[in-house]
Amino acid sequence: MPGDLKKKRGNLLNLGGPTRVLRKSSHAQGEDGAPQSSTDTSKEMHKVAKPQAFQKPIEMNWPPVTRPLNKSSVQGKKWKKADATQEKRRSFLHEFCKKYGGLNDPRSSLFHIVSRIYVEDKHRTLYCEVPKAGCSNWKRVLMVLNGLASSAYNISHDTVHYGKHLKTLDSFDLKGIDMRLKAYTKVVFVRDPMERLVSAFRDKFEHPNSYYHPVFGKAIIKKYRPNASVEALNNGSGVKFKEFVYYLLDARRPVGMDIHWEKVSKLCYPCLINYDFVGKFETLEEDANYFLQLIGAPKGLKFPNFKDRHSSDERTSAQVVRQYLKDLTRAERQRLYDFYHLDYLMFNYTTLHL
């Protein structure tokens, strides 16, 4: 493991004991008592952190213990390879977190830590949303599992992300959160960090977008493009990948982070929440359909394989990523990898493009 992680080790928390978590007051919920919307943002209301009122911290056993997957619903030998792969991934992540400790800070509000986790009570499933790693189709599947739709293929993008049909774990009280973390099957799907980053850039900056261009594009062009045209400064369109990387790596960004390029380690807290299933975008259909078998989903439900938006565009592959990274210097590429190094290490990805 890299030396910088070893140096940090002395400051990492002990994951074995009870942790003080902060109790959220009722002010953190919406007016109707439902959780605040947690969405892909392209109409795209950007989430601004709001002050929360807290009561006295309480203690919970944190993180929930890792338990063997219940494979009683899996039939036949078809999934033998997928099962072996899954056990390797779980073991790798578990050993990494055990060795290097809590690379996330448990002093954060528990409600923040679980805010990206979607709840499906019928099949006792918790899914942590990672944008650009199949999350739109996963939400469609959750809606079908919840009985909110008969087919994943008939649900529009806007319904998925703005319909407020799915609950997130932070909408429950501490008892409800604790019970579900201990008893439900927890799943996260991840993706090669560079592919995920380039996919997000292409989606948000290479197509018309009424949120990302004026909010992110204008700020990026203003700070990182010398002699920018008045038109570019006014509409924020035409951000170049190199400019986007400058923004991402800037300690004084002119506009904040966004879930579409935030690190998985900060979205899903994989060393604080022991995920039972680690899927990868690179083997998305096989992993997802195996997971559906594990939770006893209806036999006719298969993970949808269509591209949610910009369906005529080539999917972001390693080859596509190389075309974008070639505009960066070697030092810039290294800094970009360093930015995502925890995601690379936790999920055993290889840095192919240096």
UniProtKB/TrEMBL annotation:
Main subcellular location: Golgi
Region listing for Disordered, in residue ranges: 1-83
Ranges of biased composition (kind: Basic residues): 1-10
Organism listed in the record: Myodes glareolus (Bank vole)
Pfam families: Sulfotransfer_2
Keyword Cell division: no
Gene Ontology BP term (one): proteoglycan biosynthetic process
Protein name: Carbohydrate sulfotransferase
The keyword Coiled coil is assigned to this record: no
Location of the protein in the cell: Golgi apparatus membrane
